[in-house]
């Protein structure tokens, strides 16, 4: 957003201006930070973006929460309470937040947005991974219920409704990318607003106007692993995770589009890169001792590592082409993280070491901003500026609804019988 | 048949981690579905069988022959798998599959465009490895400079704000263990991230021995001599050390050194956190000192008689109440060792500290300056003490009011340094500056154990450092003779000689 101003100038001029601006910003914010209570001078994300993060949605929108039978939400959760801890738990916590939030209204006539609490990502395997095979049917069944019991769905065919679909590829409801692309977004959700973790430009499963949210990461667990600020950051690049998904893609090349395997092959001998597949108990502490944390794509482009990197002040290195990051319209990810194309992975060390130290320090200051960290979390109970509020801000920014939202009487856009035959079976 | 096997494997993998890939279940918009797919299936099957037979993935050779032209640029190529339409034989293989660390090859350029015109392809991609995947030393240096800059920023933000010089006072004298002890202190001081001034006071005058060790520190040092020799009783030693420390404080006063004075006895051990903690002292502070007493001679059972309390903590330092105010002092309880403590250097009994050791105190050097306007009035002037040095047991004697001492290290809860006195016997000798030149005096001919390739009667000059009892008759215990042998062996195999031992009778 700020780069617009620098497009015409020379690079030298840009750097000079940037450095001056940095100096001024540093002095200004150093002064201002004293009263923060935290001794680190943080940098407030200036411009329209920073203001947006601190917006308060209360009073700007009203949300009506449908009362669905408990088989859509509570019973599923009772069957498997692990859903509260995995990275898709946002759908459950969003429901709980909305039930007790001041934006909730019990009068649907005055509501701007309608929320349907259906937990589609809670059918877990014994290992804890969600199976999406019944999700389309569940969603269909829920929509059929709300369209027959309330008139508000048919009024707009869902254009003022929003759904939380935090699964791998959002409302495409499949974990495998090709299958997900083949299915496309569920027909019935064509007009609704989707709140999802998946985001990739020019992808079937990312609809125009969707709100991208971060995956759920447990706030208490991360808080309990904080180490003193003065512990020096001595790891240059840090990553823990799979490089080859041996169970499903033994040769490599499929998983993560070969990017993770490329990271391993190129940098396994490099002492600057602390990368391995181990599962250490000091994972969170190690991230706080690292300058850069790799966040490469996996089977899907998003990962909870981004959230963890932001919370622990480690600059995220995002290796996922065309990814759309959470709250991209509110958070200037270009200023905070480092984006590396998948084809540039072999040159990752050159790229990272050639970043000027002032830029790195600035990114760390932006990351230290508490509103940044708060925006990535789903705390219980909700706190101002957290991810719940950012979602509401996003919804509020889409108001007022345009004229296309409300259908003329008798007009029908959605095709209720479209999609694979298996989806039409009742749930 | 192949297909069902593949599907079975797919399903079985589903049950473990359900993401079974199925490159053969093609997606997206491809032309000519049935004949093309069956053709690729058959080709895939044929290639798999051929690989089985040959024992390696021969398709790499196919690639080399057919597509070597397109993969000319090895350093930056684009691997594209296209849509899932392209099946196994044309898939790019990773370097992991073949043990050859050669760069992967690219597929030909006939990609099928996936739905929605995305730049990003779905399907199998190449794994890009650069030709020399090893760290570039310049980049490593750049990374270290970045790390150093980041850490400097962290220190500036979270570390100590007003950094003061550390003035370390060390009384020492030449003895066997001097190099051991003083090297430890020296290395600790060299690691301190602040400026250090090291005042080394040497009993018996300045010697080359000490000077050579101290010169290696690279710190700013004051190496002064003190005109007394170190006595041999611990009591007298402690007193002399106090006088030497006061002598050093007079140097601080004379030179008007500015900083924080800490007492680093040469046999003590200091943690790095100590130096960070003492930066916060205002005038005079106290830290908790761990007392390490060599307890070889102490009889544990006698101390338990009639005593139900747990043995006291071996810590000296400030004692605080719940509101972190100084209320008293923890001192070392020497009652357990009553009558059984070392008096002279050579004694085997444990060496006990004084009530409160100097090492546990730190002073602002301005307290010692001659004329300073805002010097507090509870400090006695050093000039006043002249002649009465022997009575100064700890810096508390320099104060008129001991309640002004600031407790450091979470009010004395953190032990930041350790006190220890370990010395060799007074008659122990050591080579000057620990350099063996000329060769040592004692050479003992080793008559008992002839080397295998030397004639048996030749006496061999061995450089042995201890008195071996060559003439007494030992029973051939393999253990002792083996140790002797390993001490003196040069190029001979211990095992070979060990074999000889059992048959060998003493000479």
TrEMBL record, chain A:
GO molecular function, a single term: glycosyltransferase activity
Record key words, sorted: Glycosyltransferase, Golgi apparatus, Signal-anchor, Transferase, Transmembrane
Keyword Repeat: no
A GO CC annotation given for this chain: Golgi membrane
InterPro entries registered for this protein in UniProt: Exostosin, Exostosin_GT47
Main location: Golgi
Topology class, membrane: Single-pass type II membrane protein
Entry superkingdom: Eukaryota
Family matches, as Pfam families: Exostosin_GT47
Subcellular location: Golgi apparatus membrane
Every Exostosin GT47 domain range: 60-355
The keyword Amino-acid biosynthesis belongs to this UniProt entry's keyword annotation: no
Family stated for the protein in its record: Belongs to the glycosyltransferase 47 family.
Name of the protein described by the UniProt record: Exostosin GT47 domain-containing protein
Organism, scientific name: Flemingia macrophylla
UniProtKB/TrEMBL annotation, chain B:
EC number(s) from the headed UniProt entry: 2.4.-.-
Pfam family, one: Glyco_transf_43
The keyword RNA-binding belongs to this UniProt entry's keyword annotation: no
Location within or outside the cell: Golgi apparatus membrane
Membrane topology summary: Single-pass type II membrane protein
GO molecular function annotations of the record: xylosyltransferase activity
Domain of life, per lineage: Eukaryota
A cellular-component GO term for this protein: Golgi membrane
One Gene Ontology biological process: cell wall organization
Region span, Disordered: 468-507
Transmembrane segments: 39-58
Keywords, sorted A to Z: Cell wall biogenesis/degradation, Glycoprotein, Glycosyltransferase, Golgi apparatus, Membrane, Signal-anchor, Transferase, Transmembrane, Transmembrane helix
Family: Belongs to the glycosyltransferase 43 family.
Function: Involved in the synthesis of glucuronoxylan hemicellulose in secondary cell walls.
Official protein name in the record: Glycosyltransferases
């Amino acid at each position: 957003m700020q780069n617009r101003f620098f497009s015409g100038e020379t690079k030298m001029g840009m750097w000079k201006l940037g450095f001056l601006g940095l100096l001024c910003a540093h002095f200004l914010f150093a002064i201002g930070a004293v009263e923060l209570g935290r001794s680190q001078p943080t940098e407030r994300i200036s411009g329209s973006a920073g203001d947006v993060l601190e917006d308060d949605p209360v009073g700007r929108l009203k949300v009506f929460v449908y009362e669905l039978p408990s088989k859509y939400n509570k019973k599923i959760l009772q069957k498997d309470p692990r859903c509260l801890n995995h990275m898709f738990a946002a759908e459950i916590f969003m429901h709980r937040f909305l039930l007790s939030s001041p934006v909730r209204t019990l009068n649907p006539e005055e509501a701007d947005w309608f929320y349907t609490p259906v937990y589609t990502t809670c059918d877990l395997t014994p290992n804890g991974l969600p199976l999406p095979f019944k999700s389309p049917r569940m969603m269909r069944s829920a929509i059929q219920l709300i369209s027959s019991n309330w008139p508000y769905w048919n009024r707009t065919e869902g254009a003022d409704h929003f759904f939380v679909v935090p699964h791998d590829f959002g409302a495409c409801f499949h974990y495998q990318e090709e299958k997900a692309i083949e299915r496309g977004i569920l027909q019935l959700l064509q007009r609704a607003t989707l709140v999802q973790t998946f985001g990739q430009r020019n992808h079937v499963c990312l609809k125009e106007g969707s709100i991208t949210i971060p995956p759920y990461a447990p706030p208490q667990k991360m808080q309990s692993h904080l180490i003193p600020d003065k512990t020096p950051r001595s790891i240059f690049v840090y990553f823990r995770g799979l490089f080859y998904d041996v169970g499903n893609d033994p040769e490599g090349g499929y998983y993560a589009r070969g990017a993770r395997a490329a990271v391993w092959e190129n940098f396994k001998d490099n002492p600057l890169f602390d990368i391995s597949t181990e599962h250490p108990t000091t994972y969170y502490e190690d991230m706080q001792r690292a300058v850069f944390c790799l966040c490469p794509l996996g089977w899907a482009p998003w990962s909870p590592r981004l959230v963890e990197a932001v919370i622990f002040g480690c600059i995220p290195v995002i290796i996922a082409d065309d990814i759309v990051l959470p709250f991209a319209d509110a958070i200037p990810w270009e200023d905070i993280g480092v984006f590396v194309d998948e084809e540039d992975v072999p040159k990752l060390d050159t790229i990272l070491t050639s970043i000027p130290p002032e830029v790195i320090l600035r990114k760390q200051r932006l990351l230290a901003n508490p509103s940044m960290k708060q925006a990535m979390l789903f705390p219980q109970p909700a706190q101002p500026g957290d991810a719940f509020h950012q979602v509401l801000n996003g919804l509020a920014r889409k108001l007022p609804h345009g004229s296309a939202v409300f259908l003329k009487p008798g007009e029908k856009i959605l095709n209720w019988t479209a999609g694979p035959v298996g989806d039409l079976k009742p749930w | 048949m192949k297909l069902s096997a593949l599907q079975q494997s797919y399903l079985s993998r589903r049950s473990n981690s359900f993401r079974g890939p199925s490159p053969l279940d093609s997606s997206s918009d491809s032309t000519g579905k049935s004949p093309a797919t069956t053709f690729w299936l058959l080709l895939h099957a044929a290639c798999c069988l051929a690989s089985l037979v040959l024992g390696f993935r021969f398709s790499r050779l196919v690639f080399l022959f057919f597509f070597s032209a397109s993969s000319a640029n090895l350093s930056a190529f684009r691997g594209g798998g296209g849509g899932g339409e392209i099946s196994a034989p044309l898939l790019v293989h990773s370097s992991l599959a073949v043990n050859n660390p050669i760069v992967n090859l690219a597929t030909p350029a006939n990609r099928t465009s996936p739905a929605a015109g995305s730049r990003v392809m779905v399907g199998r991609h190449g794994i890009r490895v650069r030709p020399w995947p090893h760290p570039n030393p310049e980049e490593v240096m750049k990374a270290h400079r970045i790390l150093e800059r980041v850490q400097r920023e962290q220190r500036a933000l979270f570390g100590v704000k007003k950094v003061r010089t550390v003035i370390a006072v060390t009384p020492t004298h030449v003895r066997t263990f001097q190099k051991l002890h003083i090297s430890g202190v020296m290395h600790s001081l060299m690691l301190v991230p602040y400026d250090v001034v090291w005042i080394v006071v040497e009993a018996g005058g300045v010697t080359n021995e000490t000077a050579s060790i101290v010169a290696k520190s690279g710190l700013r040092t004051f190496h002064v001599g003190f005109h007394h020799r170190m006595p041999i009783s611990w009591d007298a030693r402690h007193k002399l050390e106090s006088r030497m420390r006061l002598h050093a404080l007079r140097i601080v006063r004379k030179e008007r050194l500015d900083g924080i004075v800490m007492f680093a006895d040469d046999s003590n051990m200091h943690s790095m956190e100590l130096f960070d903690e003492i930066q916060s002292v205002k005038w005079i502070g106290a830290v908790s000192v761990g007392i390490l007493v060599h307890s070889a001679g102490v009889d544990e059972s006698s101390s338990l008689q009639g005593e139900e309390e747990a043995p006291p903590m071996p810590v000296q330092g400030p004692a605080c109440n719940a509101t972190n105010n100084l209320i008293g002092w923890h001192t070392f309880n020497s009652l357990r060792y009553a009558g059984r403590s070392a008096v002279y250097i050579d004694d085997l009994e444990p060496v006990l500290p004084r009530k409160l050791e100097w090492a546990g105190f730190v002073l602002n050097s301005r307290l010692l300056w001659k004329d300073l306007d805002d010097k507090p009035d509870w400090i006695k002037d050093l000039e006043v003490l002249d002649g009465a040095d022997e009575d100064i047991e700890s810096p508390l004697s320099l104060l008129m009011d001991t309640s002004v001492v600031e407790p450091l290290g979470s009010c004395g809860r953190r032990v930041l340094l350790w006190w220890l006195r370990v010395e060799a016997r007074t008659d122990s000798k050591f080579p000057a500056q620990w350099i063996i030149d000329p060769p040592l005096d004692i050479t003992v001919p080793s008559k008992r154990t002839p080397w295998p390739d030397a004639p048996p009667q030749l006496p061999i000059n061995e450089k042995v450092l201890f008195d071996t009892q060559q003439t007494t008759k030992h029973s051939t215990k393999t253990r002792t003779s083996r140790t002797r042998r390993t001490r003196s062996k040069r190029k001979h195999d211990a095992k070979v000689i060990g074999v000889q031992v059992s048959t060998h009778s003493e000479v």
